[in-house]
Amino acid sequence: MTRLPFWKTKRLDQMDEAEWESLCDGCAKCCLLKFEDEATGDIAYTRLHCKLLDERTCQCSDYANRKVHVPDCVKLTPAGIDELRWMPKTCAYRLVNEGRDLPDWHHLISGDRNRVHTEGHSILGRTVSEESVLEEDQDDWIVDWDGNTP
Question: Are 148 and 72 in contact (CB under 8 A)?
Answer without folding.
Answer: no
